[in-house]
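Thread: sanity check for a docking pose with S-adenosylmethionine

Original post by kr_44:
Hi all, I'm comparing my docking run against an independent structure prediction. Below are the sequence and the ligand SMILES. Could someone generate the full complex and paste the structure tokens? I mainly care about where the ligand ends up relative to the chain.
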Amino acid sequence: MASRKAAAAAVAAHVAVLKGRPLRAALSEALAKAEGLGGNERRFVAFCTRELSRHLRWLDRAAKEAGHAPSSFHLEEDRAVMRYALWRRFRLGAEAAQVMREVSLPGPVRPRSVPDAVVADALGKAVKVPEDEPALAHSFPTWLAEAIGSPQVMEALNREPRIMMKVRPNGTRDEVQALLAAKGITTAKVEGVADALVLEDDGRAIFESGPMKNGRLVVMDVGSQRIVELCGLKGGETVIDFCAGAGGKTIALADAVGEHGRVLAWDKSQKRLAEAKERTHKLKLRHVSFPLELRMDDAQLVLIDAPCSGTGSLAREPDQKWKLTPEAVKDFAKTQGAILDEVSKKAPQAVLVYATCSVLKAEDEEVVEAFVKRSKRYTLEASMRVWPQESEGAGFYAARLTPLGRAR
Ligand SMILES: C[S@@+](CC[C@H](N)C(=O)[O-])C[C@H]1O[C@@H](n2cnc3c(N)ncnc32)[C@H](O)[C@@H]1O
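Reply from moderator J.T.:
Ran it for you. Here is the predicted complex with S-adenosylmethionine included:
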């Protein structure tokens, strides 16, 4: 059961998303404005805000099937209230009367021109959305559904993601898991990923736990951890994190090379690097540095966690699927190829690990194949896909490229 306050906050966040705010920002602004919401209600608002973006196309079709096409509404607020009501009724199975208690006028949502009778009418219909078109059934733009090409992937990208973590130092998973269990926090080990834990309950206690506060645990997707495993580091190496961003993989690389190794973190954006600096500083990772001028010649390995469409992360940022365009994907592929060219020139002896959080071949296999062909200097030694339906986290791709003549 949702309160009127929670419903209003979710609808307000959705309206802000429709007006162009990134979902995360829209959500935290709506939550900041809504006073007096409890923990469960706040979680409901976050879930609902993601769900309205995830199922937007399906919900609009449901409104049309109910005789109230979104084009007949005047305001974004009207469309948002209708989507909220249909989502509660037809995707969560709430009673129509309960949904009306949450949204009825004098409304928690203003301005609003759609009367209660119209919402109630839609909720009373036996709405059926055709299931034979995957783009509609899973609520994706048609071009993107075709580029993804798999209903299972789309379905997985519509699921609420689990909270995944990496334990530190490497090889101490049993110990950290026991520390958490002693505080009543249940986690599960991820098979095949040595240091990964997945949160089993949906409480927030994990964020206040000792291991999280003292750096024995960091939030990190299982796919990210597998990418660092593909780097095959034994300890003591010098590696470059070329697109370090906010430093997620920098931490895992630093753990993998150990104190006798070095990680040089670099990013085009100083703003993003600032976060990486703060995080590595807090964790006292003294073997990570952020050179102002990057010399790459003594690196054994360069991780290129390339800028990409983020289609593998749509479960966390579902608003992105409505903002992305086919042209943007082409632009990403161009940038990805250019970064590979640049790095291969500056670090000609280094192994390259190219990675994205995209599920699109155009940014993954096709970029790597074109690079191998163009450079004539690299062998594709290994590649991997982390599919969201298998990992319960984001989708990733990674390829390990070895310069010809280099001993493995
Ligand atoms: C996928 S994000 C990196 C995420 C990060 N590695 C992590 O694990 O948190 C891609 C990053 O590439 C950076 N970037 C974009 N173009 C670049 C370029 N030409 N050279 C270096 N970094 C670039 C972006 O600023 C962005 O931070």
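The CA atoms of residues 162 and 278 lie 25 Å apart. Hope that helps with the comparison, let us know if your pose agrees.
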